[in-house]
Amino acid sequence: MELTELATKFATMLKIEKVEEAPQKLLQVLFSSKNAFFDEWIKTFPDLSVDNLQPIFQYYMADRKNKMQDYTPKSLAKALCSIVGIQNGGKVYDMCAGSGALTVQAWNLNKDCSFICQELDERVIPFLIFNLAIRNINGVVIHGNVLEEEQYTAYRLTKGEKYSEIQEIPVPVEITADICISNPPYHLKFTPPPFAALNERYKYGIPPSGCADYAFILAGIQSAKTCGMILPCSVLEQNNQSEQSIREQLINNNLVDSIVLAPNKMFESTDISTCVYTLKKERQTTVVSMIDIRKNCVQVEREQRGQFGGSSHENRVYKKIFNEFSDDNIQQIVDIISKRSVNDGLSETPRMQDIKSMNYSLSPAKYIELEEYIAVHRDYSEIMSDINRIITEKNSCKLVINETLAKALGLDVAMFKADTAYNEQNEFYKKISGQSILKQDYIQFTKNKNEFTFKANNPEHLSTIFTAVFQMWKQHIMYLNEQENIFLAEFRDALLPDLMSGKISIQ
Description:
Blueprint: H1 3-14, H2 22-30, H3 34-44, H4 53-60, H5 74-83, E1 91-95, H6 101-109, E2 114-119, H7 125-133, E3 139-145, E4 150-158, E5 165-169, E6 177-182, H8 213-223, E7 224-232, H9 241-252, E8 256-261, E9 274-280, E10 289-292, E11 298-305, H10 311-314, E12 317-324, H11 327-339, E13 347-348, H12 352-357, H13 380-395, E14 397-402, H14 403-408, H15 413-417, H16 422-433, E15 443-446, E16 452-456, H17 465-501
Parallel strand pairs: 1-2, 1-6, 2-3, 6-7, 8-10, 14-15
Antiparallel strand pairs: 3-4, 4-5, 7-9, 8-9, 10-13, 11-12, 14-16
């Protein structure tokens, strides 16, 4: 379902005007009329294997800047849950749970699991409770800070006849589980607690100030027998001495079970490459499964209508290519790990001494012998069409500006005026792609004092920036009109007594 339609239906069901009002209203509904709300929701969205609330929160409310919120893609979540053995059941701890993307996929694989879900952002807690309760899950939802080891509120969900019953319970809640799953925020700022060396969590080392990646790893392995996490690839061979020391301890204590490289472009809001990093306390082997599945993944195209910025944006459908794991990819990964199999260009099983000889690097590329393959790319003419499309957009909004003013505003005039040898470049592109490259024509310098003009430079194409500029201009004019009216009123009030007394005559 289109995101706009999904968000509208959600807001209508909650009887709110703006989606951003949802957290508080949803929490009220969960403790007053949840059954009626759930019934209505399931009539509209009967497939509970899908987390329909995740895209709503992610697009309208996620805090990418401060909390690094970027929720887990479905196929990556399913891969993680399959790798850690959710199918075997038990108690599962979803650390940094968000709206419950990992929990929903774990539940899809095994509906007999019970869950402990912990999340720092208070706004997403109602979404998380909703996702567990509507699926009739046994579990606990904790509003708390994993890194600070603080808990603020907690809710117990008890499986009912149709939906989970919800009850607020005292904190702290003990967190022990068979399996920990997590996609924590990456590179989050972190300050080690006082007396960290005396804390059982940090027995393998103290993570560096400024980056919490290994702090989350240590929190995960402290809480469960098996820990599977989606992490940035930098954790595999970071140069930071503190992280290097922790990695050495985890390897020397035979805790690292498998590393799976995931492709980039899996997430909605970032192209970052990640890995599935799995640790186990009770391992029956000393080899580590290293898997590079990136070449085997599948690509999907998703369409999304613009959400903000006026009709020119909202009426446009944007297309984006994402990478995903297919079910076959996931089964292949699980089979490789369970059998500790070696496949050329795909997987390897280095022993502990092999990893030590590589300076404790956990990057699969260091161990897997890659097969030679021919890179496949789009036709040159298609790429050239996209390049010209971008140049057309640039040229359609031309800036004409006084040269001195441009320098004062910080423009590198010399760079813009430099000879770009267009003719030679064009001949090259025509030879390779069969298409000419458009000439850049988006800025012009003049000697006219203080000239500063934006021109619609293409009669066939109006740049989208003009919509934004027009809105800003309109708001600015409205502000200036208000200011003008204030001073006109002041002028009138000052003038009227002088006119009445005859001090000033307008004849």
